[in-house]
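Dear all,

This email documents one entry for the complex benchmark we are building for the journal club exercise. For each entry we list the sequence lines for every component of the assembly. Then comes the predicted three-dimensional structure of the complex as a token string, followed by one or two observations. Please use this as the template for your own entries, and keep the labels exactly as they appear.
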Amino acid sequence: MGHGVDGVANPGATGSNPSDPTDATLLSAVAGADRDAFAVLYTRHAPWLQVRLRRRCGDPDVVAEALQDTFVAVWRGAGRWGRRGEVPAWLWGIAIRRLIDLLARRPSHDALTAASDPVVRSAEEQVLLGVEYGDAAGALNRLSPELQAVVRATVLDGLTTREAARLLHIPQGTVKTRMARARSLLRQALS
Amino acid sequence: MIAWHADAQLLAAYADGLLDLARTTSVEQHLLGCGTCRATVAAVADRPLLDRVWAETLDVLDRPPVSAAERILTAVGLAPSAARLASKASSAQRAWLWSCALLAAFAIAAPRTEGWVIMWFLVLAPLVPVIGVALAYGPDTDPMHEVVAAAPYSRLRLILLRSLLVIPVTGALVLVTGLTVPGGPTMSALWLLPGLALSAMTLALEARLGALPVAAALSLAWIVFAVGARVGTGTVMTAYGPAVQLVCLTTLVAVAAFAAYGRHQAGRSS
């Protein structure tokens, strides 16, 4: 069980040190069933994946299961990465789909309430945000939570309409309608 | 090279869900491309959860893979431990193939012969799966034999479990080869449904009445029925009529439902 857990407890050891093996090197080692490389990969990527998954699902048990499924899939499918694209984006693509699979099996789960935290902003903060991001950010943030969830799933997580529908527990048609509404609202705000 | 890095405060706010959609988006996009910030955000990750997931992940990797046969058996209501025992499988493949070949040979030989031979074949064939599997999984051919012998597990129950696995595959074999013999696949495949129904019934009843009496009683009942059909109507084929096949199919479905219902009981007793 042991190796790698020590590394997890010490995130400073990973990161920007140029002598560290690259993700690509690690993945090809993992494809050759190298447990040590797998441990390094886990140490490097599991933490941020966990943080990001938690933003999509409030239940820590489901997040843990999705993370576990992700790394089991990475271990078995490391050869399938094929050097196309960035490793972190590839990992997130696996993780979000594992999460969708898990959430789809829990009919009672309400992905929307679990994923979005209503944030009340002060007027000053709104102004600062306007300076920082311009109108696009303001318009994005003014979308209703339902529309935000759809934008997040389709645009940011790169999910298909079908996957987004499974994640949010709404029909595919609703995903399309909401996406169209969000798009027209954003267009209005920017014109 | 990315010159800008998110500060720890922003990343902590992101992790706590305090950012709006626009800023969340920015952070997430940045994280995908910046190893330094990924390392920074690791500080706010749930460390006990990560350690637990790591241990469980290794546990899953060390677990032997679940075979397709096992998955099917589990899906139809067997306890996972029983499915493993029935299909194990990767080590006992040769034994399993032998039993398949034996059954297929019986079925293919049958339509080519006439008279008494085919009569006795049709009487005994449904009982063959259990016997054939018992032979195939014997001490000489089954690598699991010693493990199984040492386990506190009814040997007959194991044989029945394995016959449930063998018959469907044999059935497919027989169906394919049956297409090449005169008379078509129906003749050589007739006995499969009764055979499967008998094995399944024995399996379902053995928990209550004991394996040996049930198997003996059912075998005897079948022989009496088949011989009775021969004496009564002049041909043993009566015992394989559409009505009988339908009854067998119904029995199978009922047993499957029963097995699914009593799954937890089965899990405890195995």
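Observations: The mean pLDDT of chain B is 70. The two ends of chain B are 60 Å apart (CA to CA).
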